[in-house]
Structure formats: C-alpha cells, structure tokens
Design a protein that fits this description.
BirA Bifunctional Protein, domain 2, 2 domains, elongated, three-stranded antiparallel sheet, 367 residues, alpha+beta, seven-stranded mixed sheet, binds 3,4-dihydroxyphenylalanine
C-alpha cells in the first residue's frame, strides 16, 4: 500500500517548486490527476481490507484537500506574477493615438538675450562665454577695483571660498561674479586685439529681493579694443544699439559717472520710448485716472539703461599684448532683465524667475 505521508510530501514539494502556471498544471496532473497514486488509492479503497478502509480513506481525503488548496493558492500567485509580466511587456500600445507634444516657447529672457546678441553680431561683434564663479582677481583686482571697495565686502558679494577678512582681499578667493565685466579680462586673455566681443550671462549680488532687485540677474557686457577708439566710437555704438533696441528716433544721452575700470566713465540714458521724453502718461493711463505721469520712465522722460566708459589703461595693462600706449577701448554693461521688463512692460522682475506658465506663454512667438 502506498505511503500517504510520503505521497503528500512529494506532491507538496512539486507544487511548491512550480515556477510557472504551466509547471503547476503538470504537477497537479501528476499528483491530483486521474492516475495520480493518491487518487488511485482513494478510488480503489474498496480493495483494502475492511479494517483499513476508514483510516486510509480519511487520511487520503485530508491529504487531497490540503494539496488541492495548496495548488489553488499557488495558481493564484503564479497567475498574478505572469499577468504583471505581461502587462509590463505590453506597456506600449502602438494602436493608441499619439499624445500631442505641446510646442515650447522661448523664455522672454532668452528672447531678449538673443535680440541683444543679434544686434551686436550685426555690428561685427562675437559672442563669448565666461565663468560665473570667478576669482577675486578677475572680479575686482584686475578690474582696477581697490582693496576696501564696498563691492569686495561679503555683505555685497557672495564668497564661495577664501575670503580674507583681515587683509580685505585675496586674489585667489572665489566669488559669484557681481558683474559681467569679469568677461573683459577673460576675453582679452584668449584673444589678441582688435577685440570686439559681447558676453551675456548671470551675475549675483547679495540683495534683498523685490520687484526690481534680485540676488541673481543677467547682464550683457560689450568690449571693444582697437587702435584709435575714442569716446565718439562709444557714443556711436551705444546710439546704434539703443536705436535698434527701442526705436531709431529716440535721443541718447551720456552722463558722467564713475566705474573703477573705465576712465572716463558714463551712464547712458535713452529717451523714454513710451512718452517720447515728455513724461506724460499714455492716453490710456491718463483716461484710467490712475497715473498722472509716464509709467515707464516715472515722468523723467529718460530711461537709465547702462554703465559704460573708456577702458582704463590699468585694465589694458593687465594683459600682455594690450599695450595701453597703442590700444584703447570702450566697454559697457546692460541689464538684460531690465531690458526685457521695459520691452514687454511687466512690472515685477521676479516674474522672470517664477516660471509661471501663464506668464511665460504670453511671449510665445515674439521676436
Ligand atoms: N559692471 C557695471 C555694473 O555692473 C556696468 C558697467 C559699467 C560695465 C561700465 C562696463 C562699464 O563695461 O564700462 O554696474
């Protein structure tokens, strides 16, 4: 007579070892099918001596129930795994209609930056790159900015490493540059004169953030170095540039100013493109009653737009091949964010950096 306990152990281990539904079905046939030893034993129970029938029948039925339950639960588990695998393999349904790809738009800052670059490319300038993390030497020393200048103070400038509070300066200290003027030295070191380059990029200042201030913003630097360049070339270049940017008929004026790395230094103003210099509110603004003067220039008639000047001979003298006796140059720096605000007439600088799509999408397709 077959040993029921042994049959049950064998069946259990085969059912448990089955790794697929198909293997499980084979094990079920072998151990619970019509010709399985346990099933035959139960079918032929009558052939046993009468005193054994009850005990063997009972044990055989208990074993069969246990094995059937085990087979059922293994089936559920294996079927679930196989379904998962199938779903994963079928993840791409090529018959589904394609999802449409929304077309992106250029960020208003990118648009403005490209416009500025285009204007200068048209005047024969190259666009160059320069690092945002700079040494104090590039940031200040080489730009003729003396030790003790407020811009060198860590309350104005983000120091990344090496700030020397006692000496007040450390040429090797690392800063986040506060102005794109750092690109002047970088460009001079890479190229020989004549040099006509612009460099747009990010700058960083420790500043409280409000509608017109940010601790990160964008500038574009222009630098021209050649034989015989004068303030007249600077003024002509600024005028052509601002005319292209804001309108051909607008006046441009230069006011004297001070920057450490230019001599003389100026600030350039462009006549307000909105009120054309009168300072009056637009007809629409006047009609609304909410404005009694021009909103763009605040009634000044002029918009202060950039710092500029003739490159200081001390800066030229820093780089070999730029003999200040032979070469002269001019430079200027303009805030790209501010130009974007002026062009599009939005009131808060922070809108540029919040990436609210409702704001950004308004500039889709603009030049
Ligand atoms: N770097 C100056 C600033 O951040 C702007 C500036 C002034 C740039 C005069 C120049 C320049 O190139 O010549 O305010």
């Amino acid at each position: 007579m077959p040993d029921i306990e042994q049959l049950t152990r064998d069946a259990r281990s085969d059912l448990e070892a089955a790794a697929t539904v198909a293997e499980l079905e084979a094990a079920k046939v072998a151990h619970l099918g019509r010709s399985a030893p346990l099933v035959l034993l139960l079918r032929d129970i009558r052939e046993l001596p009468p005193e054994d029938r009850g005990r063997v029948g009972k044990a055989g039925n208990v074993a069969r129930k246990e094995l059937e339950a085990l087979a059922a639960s293994r089936h559920d588990a294996l079927a679930a795994v196989e379904l998962d695998d199938r779903l994963r393999a079928d993840a791409i349904d090529v018959t589904l209609p394609a999802r449409s790809m929304p077309r992106g738009t250029l960020h208003p800052l990118t648009q403005t930056r490209r416009l500025l670059e285009d204007i200068f490319l048209g005047m024969g300038y190259d666009v160059v790159d320069a690092p945002e993390v700079e040494s104090e030497w590039y940031g200040f020393t080489a730009l003729n900015t003396p030790v003790g200048h407020p811009a060198r103070n860590p309350s104005d400038t983000f120091y990344v490493a090496g700030h020397d509070a006692d000496a007040g300066a450390n040429d090797d200290a690392l800063i986040l540059r506060t102005q794109t003027s750092t690109a002047q030295l970088r460009a001079m070191q890479l190229r020989k004169p004549p040099l006509y380059v612009v460099h747009p990029g990010r700058v960083y200042r420790r500043d409280d953030i409000d509608a017109t201030h940010s601790d990160m913003f964008h500038q574009m630097e222009a630098l021209a170095i050649d034989e015989g360049l004068t303030l007249a070339h600077l003024k002509g270049t600024i005028e052509s540039f601002l005319h292209r940017l804001f309108g051909e008929e607008l006046d441009v004026r230069l006011r004297t100013h001070f920057f450490p790395f230019t001599e003389p230094s100026v600030e350039a103003d462009v006549q307000c493109f909105s009120c054309r210099g009168t300072g009056d509110p637009s007809a629409e603004d006047a009609a609304s009653g909410a404005f009694d003067r021009c909103r763009v220039c605040r009634g000044e008639g002029w918009i202060e737009i950039m710092g500029a000047g003739m490159v200081d001979p001390n800066v030229l003298g820093v780089v070999d091949g730029y003999d200040p006796e032979r070469y002269s140059g001019f430079a200027f720096g303009i805030g790209i964010d501010r130009v974007a605000m002026l062009r599009h007439g939005f009131p808060d600088l922070r809108m540029l950096f919040q990436n609210d799509l409702r704001f950004v999408r308004q500039f889709a397709g603009r030049p």
